[in-house]
Amino acid sequence: MEFNRCSRCGSFYLSQDNVCPKCLAKDNLEFSTFKNYIEENGINNSLNDISDQTGISPKNLHRFLTYENIENNIQTKKNISKNITNL
Ligand SMILES: [Zn+2]
Questions:
Q1: Which residues are near ligand 1, the ion (C-beta closer than 5 Å)?
Q2: CA pair distance 20, 68, nearest whole angstrom
Q3: What pTM did the predictor assign?
Q4: Considering its fold, how many domains does the chain have in total?
């Protein structure tokens, strides 16, 4: 078993999640806020602007960017809706 250190609160924890169990709910919420934001606005704005508009700290935004390939997910979604339109 390996200890992870929570990047939100600094606590140590054992799960495979990106943050400790205490922060997980808030982290998931902010991550979906962030995903919704970039789906609508793209990631052309600076992290500071995104932070102002979403209320998520730049530090957490930066971490979200390192999560699974976000841009690919958005691209996939766009392709899916394109295919639906073509049907
Ligand atoms: Zn935590």
A1: 6, 8-9, 11, 20, 22-23
A2: 18
A3: 0.71
A4: 1
Between CA 62 and CA 67 the distance in angstroms is 9
Which amino acid makes up residue 36?
N
Q: For residue 9, is it within any domain?
A: no
CA of 11 from ligand 1 middle (Å) equals 5
Spell out the per-residue pLDDT of the chain, length 87, in tens.
Answer: 678 999 999 999 998 888 999 999 999 999 999 999 988 998 788 889 999 999 999 999 989 988 755 555 555 555 555 555 555
In the structure encoding, which two tokens stand for residue 20, read together? 């400790």
CB 60 within 8 A of CB 8: yes
Ligand 1 centroid to residue 16 C-alpha, Å: 13
Give the distance (Å) from ligand 1 centre to CA of residue 21: 7
Q: Quote the domain boundaries for residue 49.
A: 21-86
